[in-house]
Amino acid sequence: MSLKKMSEAIVEAQREEMLRDEKVFLMGLDVGPYGGAFGCSKGLWKEFGQERVMDMPISEAGYVGAAVGAAAAGMRPIAELQFSDWLTIATDQMVNQAANMHYTFGGTINVPMVLRLPSGGYLAAASQHSHMYEPWMAFVPGLKVISPSNAADAKGLLKAAIRDNNPVCFFEHKKCYGLSCEVPDDRDFVLPIGKAKIVREGRDVSIITFAYMVELAKQASEILAKEGIEAEILDLRTIKPMDTDAIVETVRKTNRAVCLQETWLTCSVASEVAAVIADKAFDYLDAPVKRIGSFEAPNPYSPKLENYILPSVERIVKEIRTML
């Protein structure tokens, strides 16, 4: 085990998989000598060369489309968008092509690619560099969607995504890049896709969340614990496929549920979690399900305004106090 930041764990996962399988390669903006906008390809260009770590022009539609084609032809590309907001430019390649090809060709073609997507707010980066679009991708059959909250999960799940025969959207919250934890050094450390994890045991309310919101949930839980309220935190880790069994199990234990996410609530992951609870765990509830997310507005450039519309520790604590 080694203490690593999430950005370092992502570099390590890619390096190990590139050493393991010569079909794995990386492409994106500034992923070469610069090492990536967030340091997530640092050192890879020097080790593997420009044929396997390829700097791309500012044409997200072009190079994501190239990744889809390479995957269909038997390679295992990792494509990095510099910001997940620019997924809008490459949506046709992912939604109309990558997600459909296995089905369109009767199972004779696989598209084993990973689209890495730095995402999220709290950095005053304004509306075109701060959003999270994981609900869009989770809506589409044929795509898997992952969003880890820590370095160890990022390494294990990214390795699993690279080895998976399906196209995977891998959302990496920018505020998590600098968070450190112990990460297994084992090159065979791979986490299963579709399995949630309890990161804090509790008895009074379940906070079901993912990505950077796990950190806010932990902080809120410490405040609540001083008041005698013990919150359980379930980190989804994978948005699709979603671990519905884990959701039901935690609600059955605590009888109350908060569905917490960073982005807007309309047609969201929080909405899907609430629907799962209504469908499979309704009889266990002692209070209505609560959803917490961003207010319905683009992320502002002003830090004060951004912190106002996005979830906060104070808002989480307040909502849970109201439930109890």
How does this model look, in words?
The chain is α/β, with parallel strands linked by helices and 324 residues long. 36% of the residues lie in helices and 20% in strands. It is built from twelve helices and 14 strands. It has a seven-stranded mixed β-sheet, sandwiched between helices. Strands 9-11-10-13-14 form a five-stranded mixed β-sheet, sandwiched between helices.
Fold blueprint:
Elements: E1 2-5, H1 6-20, E2 24-28, H2 44-48, E3 53-55, H3 60-72, E4 76-80, H4 91-98, H5 101-104, E5 114-119, H6 134-138, E6 144-146, H7 151-163, E7 168-173, E8 180-183, E9 197-200, E10 205-209, H8 213-225, E11 231-235, E12 238-240, H9 244-254, E13 257-264, H10 269-280, E14 290-294, H11 303-309, H12 313-323
Parallel strand pairs: 2-3, 2-4, 4-5, 5-7, 6-7, 10-11, 10-13, 13-14
Antiparallel strand pairs: 1-8, 6-12, 9-11
Helix pairs in contact: 1-7, 3-4, 8-12, 9-10
Query: How many distinct helices?
Result: 12
Low-confidence stretches: none
In round numbers, the mean pLDDT is: 97
Q: How many independent structural domains? A: 2
Number of DSSP E strands: 14
Helix content: 25-40%
CATH structural fold name of the largest domain: Rossmann fold
What class would the helix/strand composition place it in? alpha/beta
How many angstroms does the end-to-end distance come to? 40 Å
CATH superfamily of the largest domain: Thiamin diphosphate (ThDP)-binding fold, Pyr/PP domains
Q: Tell me, what's the shape?
A: globular
Known CATH architecture of the largest domain: 3-Layer(aba) Sandwich
| CATH hierarchy class name of the largest domain | Alpha Beta
Percent in strands:
15-25%
Main pleated sheet:
7 strands, mixed
Strand order, largest beta sheet: 3-2-4-5-7-6-12
Order of helices and strands: EHEHEHEHHEHEHEEEEHEEHEHEHH
Give me the Rg, rounded. 19 Å
